[in-house]
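Model it.
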Amino acid sequence: MKKALLIFIFLLSLSQLFAQYQSDTIVYRKGSVGLYRQNGKYLSQKEFTNVIQTNPEAYQELQKAKSNYTFGYIFGYAGGFMIGYPIGTALGGGKANWALAGIGAGLVCLAIPLSSAHSKHTANAVRIYNHSKMTGMNKVDFKLNLKANSIGVKMNF
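Modeled.
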């Protein structure tokens, strides 16, 4: 009976050790503005960047996402203006420059894949960060060392 109780207490103590591990992964939801959540708390863009900076590979992917966002925003804004100006002129009774609207439409079409690339790179940065955190419990490797005068166990982690 004592043996069974000791084994039960030992197994119970092991389960308590694993219960202490808490994952700090990030959840990313795509949209016009990305929403980032970590440990139940929503992160601002600045907080998200600060968290991602701890992983160089994920941060590099986030930098790609930011550059795609910037260029997409510039092209989209300029294209929208170039489309809206001739439409406003035509509604006001003036002669519209439809070539300008065509160029604007081309810029808007260029902004769409950049926006998509921004979402893809941001999601990839979150995936890289989360993957590095999921492997937070380091792999421990035991090797038996046999030498002429001794025997030992080598532990790599």
